């Protein structure tokens, strides 16, 4: 276990290396930080930190840089994450609050998170398994066409046009719409198949073909959207980042949505802010990166995760503060819809 002085030296090395991109020497630490000891004592502490694997010397006669182990201790011992300014908080509220549907909310969130952190932003769509039916609408379009609209409490909107029906009567459509809403509103989407199984039998024989067609399309739409979806933003920021692995490896890993989903799923409790550093990431393409993630949801119900991917040399307090704030505001926006 490191004593407080060595922890202060490690913290100073991380902060300086993140700010300057240059290996940090003992004289620079003594000049820039009030550590209360001489450069010689700092040098001795740096030797001890290197022996324990928290820092390393990339070149002979060069200063030191943090290792993954050093970054991990730095993050674990953070007393606080960097809070956003009142102007930044207002900007987040205004920017996210102006979105009109879930797709735009997610698109704006990705853009915002990438701009705040200068990293690659990742936002997972709310899981279908954690969404409830808020409303079902049926709209007659023509004599043989009906549009079905399914709206969830998380803002998802599914629209499908059903063609080739027998002549559609307004009364039949309205009756079916009312029955669907009575049966489904408030139900988890995963419970929809069981909730509508006996519904056609409750209708007059002439209305059953319409009900069967609508229910078939409804269930198909749930199956097709079952796989989770990831949206990326800020990949152009990669050009300004330094990675120990090749940039191509990182880009190829980012293109694999399944890999990103698995990594987000591995990052612990969705209610917690989580940081995975370097080799802690299971996929080879992300072993030169750090991933900061947090869950977002409605109330105490987590729906999905968002986060950022960047080099291990990142501003952890600022990045963690931005990820946590955006996740909180996203949950508030969804809860208010």
Characterization of the model:
The strands form three sheets. Strands 7-3-10-9-8 form a five-stranded antiparallel beta sheet, sandwiched between helices. It is built from twelve helices and ten strands. The protein folds into three domains: 4-76, Arc Repressor Mutant, subunit A; 86-127 and 228-335, Beta-Lactamase (2-Layer Sandwich); 129-224, Enolase-like, N-terminal domain (Enolase-like, domain 1, 2-Layer Sandwich). Strand 1 (55-56) and strand 2 form a beta hairpin. With 337 residues, the protein is α+β, with helices and mostly antiparallel strands. It has helices at residues 4-20, 26-32, 39-51, 68-76, 86-97, 102-117, 170-184, 192-196, 208-224, 247-255, 257-266, 316-335; strands spanning 55-56, 65-66, 120-124, 133-142, 145-152, 157-162, 230-233, 274-277, 289-298, 301-311. Helix 5 packs antiparallel against helix 6 and helix 6 (102-117) runs antiparallel to helix 12 (316-335).
What descriptive keywords fit this protein?
Arc Repressor Mutant, subunit A, 3 domains, alpha+beta, 337 residues, three-stranded antiparallel β-sheet, five-stranded antiparallel β-sheet, 12 helices, Enolase-like, domain 1, Beta-Lactamase
CATH superfamily of the largest domain: GAF domain
Question: What is the residue-averaged pLDDT?
Answer: 86
Please mark out the parts with pLDDT under 50 across 5 or more consecutive residues, or reply none. none
Number of strands: 10
Provide the number of structural domains.
3
CATH class categorisation of the largest domain = Alpha Beta
- Tell me the series of helices and strands, N- to C-terminal: HHHEEHHHEEEEHHHEHHEEEH
